[in-house]
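Long-time lurker. I teach an intro course on protein structure, and each term I like to show students one example going from raw sequence to a predicted 3D structure in C-alpha cell notation. This year I'd like something fresh instead of my usual example. Would anyone be willing to generate the C-alpha cells for the chain below so I can use it in lecture? Attribution to the forum is fine with me.
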Amino acid sequence: MTDIKNIFQTICVHEGEDYERFGGGVTPPIFENSLFSFPSYEDIDDAYAGKSNRYIYTRGLNPTVEILEKKITALEGTEATKVMASGMAAITSAIMTVLKEGDHVIAVRNLYSPAHQFLTDYLGQKFSVETTYVDGRNVDEIAEAIRPNTSIIYLESPTSLNFHLQDLREVSRLAKENEITTIIDNSYSTPYYQRPFEFGVDLIVHSGTKYLNGHSDVVVGVVTGRKELVARIQQFEQALFGGIIGPFEAWLVIRGLRTLGLRMERHTKSALKIANFLEQHPKVTRVNYPGLESFPQKDLADRQMTGWGGLLSFEVEGDQDGIKNMINKLQYFSIGVSWGGYESLVSHPNISLKHNFTIEQMEEWDLSPNLIRIFVGLEDAEVLIQDLTQGLEEL
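-- Reply from a regular --
Happy to contribute to a lecture. Here you go:
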C-alpha cells in the first residue's frame, strides 16, 4: 500500500495545470463552451479520427473538466477518469458498462441505498439482473455466491452506516480468478486514505459531492480505474446517457481538491476525539468508527487504509422519541443527508430504513433503529463535544 501523503497536496495543486497555456493564470479558466470550432474541414476531420487532441463538444470533453480528471487519476493512481453529473451517474455508468441482460451481481449489504435500489429494483425488473447481497466481511461468503454468470462484485469499504470493511486485496484476487469485474465506492476514504486500485480493484466510484469538493455546493460523481473500462464508459454510458458535469462545477471541484488533504486531516483529528468521547458516554452502547482501537476490523483497516475521515455512527439507549428530542436539541450538527462538506451533520438512518426494509432485514444487516450517524465537520471539536453532551441528556 502506497502512502502518497508526502506529495498528495502537490498533486492536488499542480497536476493537470499549465499556467503558460492560460497566460500565467494560477487558476484555470472556466471553459463554459458547448462546442469548439475549427479553422478548416481537415482539422475537424482529424479530430473525429483521433489524429489531434482538439476539443469538439463538451458532452465529450472540455478543457476545465479534463484538468479535474487528470488530478483524480493521479490521486487515485489509476489509468483514466471520467467525472459525471452525480455520484449515482458514476455508479450506474460503472455498473452498466460491465453488465448485460441476465447477469448476476454480488454486492455488499448496507451499501448506499440508491445503489441498492438501482441493482434490485431497476436492473432486476428491467434487465433480469439478479443481485446477491453478502456481508462482505467474509471473503468465503463472497466466493460461495459466485455463479457462472456473475459479472460484478460491488464493494463499499467502509460501508457508510456501520462501516464494515471488505478485504480489497483478497476480493480482487478472487474476482480476477473468476474473470469478474470489481467496483468499489471509495467516497468514505478518498484517495487520501485509501487507493483501491493498488489492491486490484478495477473501477472506483465516488460521490465527489462529498469530500472531493468539500464545500456542499456541487453535485458531482467520479468513475476511475482501468483505461479500457473508462474509455467504454466515455464512449457509451457518459456520451449516450448524457450524465456530464458542467465546466463551472468541474472548476469548483478543482478548487475543493486544493485543500482535500488538509481537510481530511482536520476531519479525522476531530472525529477521533469525538468517537473516543462517545465511547465513554453512559448512554452510548456502541460506536462505529474505523479509527478506534475497539473497532472489530481494526487490523484490516490499518492494512488497507491510512486514515478515517469525519463520518461515524453510534447506537444509544432509549426510545425513538428520545432520539428525536436529542437530534432536535443539537445546535451545531445540522439535520441533513449527505456529508463531506465543511459543516457537521446528524441523521437518523431509521427514518428512511423503516420505509424500505423490514425489521428482520435491518437486524440481519446489523442496523439498529437506535443508530445515529454524524459527520464531523471543520468546527472546533470541543464545541461539537459540548453540543453532543447537551443533546444526549435528552435520551
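Some talking points for your students: The first strand starts at residue 80 and ends at 84. The chain has two domains: 5-30+62-257, 260-392.
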